[in-house]
């Protein structure tokens, strides 16, 4: 656990990546698996994770991300896109996966499925979008933690125009919406931010014990 906390102190939102350093396929697969294993409400994972490697496509995305250099300098660009249309069929697909994975009859899952549908499909379109977008933050958390263990830098980003990202990547046609961006790679030795002391609230300010 001490090593985990040391790695959390090591990580920061990298401002300048070393474009010459690339993440190995092995390490990228570990990060992908960490994202895949992330917790989510009901286990539904109502999102897709787009990994953008194409340099020309990333250059096209940069203006939509406020021109931030990390978009093109990082080893990889990850876009977390939440699903915008969640209906009964999405829940049925999840139940089928659960049935096959756990060797459980579909009939035994009917009650759970009905409960999920009563809570999720009853939401308005706006409420569904907010709910599914929140799930991507859980996946981002796993990415941040796993990357720190591998000494891979991650910069989580909300500084972008979702509509523009959606248009460039064709996400609207897939009923997806860009909710988060994360650039991953290795910090440049000239990035002065890596030497800043981490600023966080004290235990006294942050925690309340009742």
UniProtKB/TrEMBL annotation:
Which GO molecular-function terms appear in the entry?
oxidoreductase activity
Signal peptide (from-to): none
Its transmembrane ranges are none
InterPro entries xref list: NfsB-like (IPR033878), Nitroreductase (IPR029479), Nitroreductase-like (IPR000415)
Cofactor(s) listed in the protein's UniProt record: FMN
Pfam families in the record, alphabetically? Answer: Nitroreductase
Provide this UniProt record's keywords sorted from A to Z.
Answer: Flavoprotein, FMN, NADP, Oxidoreductase
Query: Per the database record, which ranges form the Nitroreductase domain?
Result: 10-186
Q: Which family does it belong to?
A: Belongs to the nitroreductase family.
Q: What is this protein called?
A: NAD(P)H-dependent oxidoreductase
Species this chain originates from: Flavobacterium rhamnosiphilum
